[in-house]
């Protein structure tokens, strides 16, 4: 959608209302105001981050692969990390040869994280800090001006990275097939890298097939959640997951509204979040049942593969090698559904136009739940 808008702008064509609505849906924006200006900003942000990232990675790649090849590989790696793609040109071991390289790992983590924040978060942070500096506001005041969406995305990004890194470190600490033979600093680096990569970059600096089962479960959860809405990443998205948690908590403590940071999240948003997660879980459960019947792979590995495909991550435990064409076709379908989005797929192929009598409200009668 952004490329279409760019071509129209280059050709001097008028951006129609329909184009603006599609752009708004692409970026998860509820407003049609300033979308074309935001599109230009997104392109500027994207190229800037990718070029800066490529220059840092080139510091390590150029001495190894030569100037031309190293520079190209660095640019490819930077674009892949920023777009949460997970492809690399290093070799058949993914990024294992650079498992302890600080510059390459940290640069890829930063690019992946920035790409996973989302377009609207970049713009909101940029506007708040630019205006705040002009008005000479304190850092606290600038942060307070950030939108609720931006605050929730950043909080979830930080929380999930820490939780994932600690979990990976704890359960792989003594595993000699993964990080057991590294020193503490390298163990922390590798653990943090995979916590970030699982959300949904797909790079690996250790062999996924050598992970303990509990670690595969942790990474599967991270992959399922994904990153920010309107970002380069897949998964159900961090805000979706957090809204569900906040809604359940509000219900448990007896609150009528879902409140956070002196703001109220609408019930419609909560219902949409539950719908996204529920449809995703149903799809994954059905897919895993099919794969279990048609392969001899262990259940944990099948879960890992299906979640990785659905969240468009690209990490694999090696189970793909044991799948036939039918099972691989299902994996392809999961990737397609995950990239398009569960709600979009439901609207396009399942949901029908509401009938007139849907506005009729009948007498209420409760049923027992829980």
The total strand number stands at: 2
Number of helices: 15
What is the N-to-C succession of helices and strands? HHHHHHHHHHHEEHHHH
Shape: globular
Termini Cα gap: 43 Å
Q: Helices and strands: which structural class?
A: mainly alpha
Beta-strand fraction estimate: under 5%
Rounded to the nearest angstrom, the radius of gyration is 22 Å
Task: Give the % helix.
Answer: 55-70%
Strand order, main sheet: write it out. Answer: 1-2
What ranges have pLDDT less than 50 throughout 5 or more consecutive residues?
A: none
Major beta sheet summary: 2 strands, antiparallel
The overall pLDDT, averaged over residues, is 84
Which terms summarize this structure?
two-stranded antiparallel ribbon; mainly alpha; 15 helices; single chain; 370 residues; 2 strands; globular
Please write out the topology:
Blueprint: H1 2-10, H2 17-26, H3 35-65, H4 67-82, H5 102-115, H6 119-134, H7 139-145, H8 148-172, H9 184-201, H10 213-225, H11 238-252, E1 258-260, E2 263-265, H12 267-294, H13 299-310, H14 325-340, H15 342-349
Antiparallel strand pairs: 1-2
Question: In a few lines, what is going on in this structure?
Answer:
This protein is an all-alpha fold and 370 residues long. The protein has helices at residues 2-10, 17-26, 35-65, 67-82, 102-115, 119-134, 139-145, 148-172, 184-201, 213-225, 238-252, 267-294, 299-310, 325-340, 342-349; strands at 258-260, 263-265. Helix 4 (67-82) runs parallel beside helix 5, helix 8 (148-172) packs across helix 9 and helix 12 packs antiparallel against helix 14 (325-340).
């Amino acid at each position: 959608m952004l490329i279409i808008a760019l071509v129209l702008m280059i050709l001097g064509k008028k951006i129609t209302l329909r184009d603006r609505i599609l752009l708004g849906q692409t970026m998860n924006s509820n407003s049609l105001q300033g979308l074309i200006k935001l599109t230009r900003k997104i392109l500027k942000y994207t190229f800037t981050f990718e070029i800066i990232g490529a220059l840092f990675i080139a510091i390590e790649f150029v001495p190894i692969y030569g100037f031309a090849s190293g520079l190209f590989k660095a640019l490819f790696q930077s674009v892949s990390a920023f777009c949460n793609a997970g492809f690399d040109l290093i070799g058949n071991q993914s990024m294992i040869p650079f498992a302890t390289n600080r510059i390459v790992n940290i640069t890829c983590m930063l690019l992946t994280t920035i790409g996973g924040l989302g377009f609207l978060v970049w713009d909101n942070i940029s506007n708040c800090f630019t205006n705040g500096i002009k008005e000479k506001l304190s850092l606290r005041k600038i942060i307070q001006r950030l939108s609720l969406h931006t605050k929730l995305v950043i909080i979830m990004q930080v929380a999930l990275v820490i939780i994932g890194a600690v979990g990976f470190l704890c359960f792989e600490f003594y595993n000699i097939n993964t990080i057991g033979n590294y020193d503490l600093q390298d163990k922390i680096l590798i653990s943090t890298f995979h916590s970030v990569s699982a959300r949904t970059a797909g790079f690996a600096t250790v062999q996924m097939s050598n992970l303990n089962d509990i670690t595969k479960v942790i990474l599967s959860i991270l992959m399922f959640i994904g990153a920010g809405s309107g970002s380069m990443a897949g998964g159900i998205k961090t805000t979706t997951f957090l809204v569900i948690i906040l809604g359940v908590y509000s219900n448990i403590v007896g609150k009528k509204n879902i409140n956070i940071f002196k703001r109220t999240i609408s019930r419609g948003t909560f219902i949409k979040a539950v719908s996204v997660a529920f449809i995703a879980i149903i799809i994954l459960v059905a897919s895993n049942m099919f794969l279990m019947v048609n392969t001899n792979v262990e259940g944990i590995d099948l879960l890992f593969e299906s979640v990785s495909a659905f969240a468009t991550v690209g990490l694999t435990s090696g189970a793909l090698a044991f799948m036939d064409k039918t099972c691989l076709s299902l994996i392809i379908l999961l990737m397609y559904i995950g990239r398009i989005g569960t709600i979009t797929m439901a609207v396009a192929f399942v949901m029908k136009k509401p009938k007139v009598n849907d506005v009729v409200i009948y007498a209420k009668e409760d049923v027992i739940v829980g």
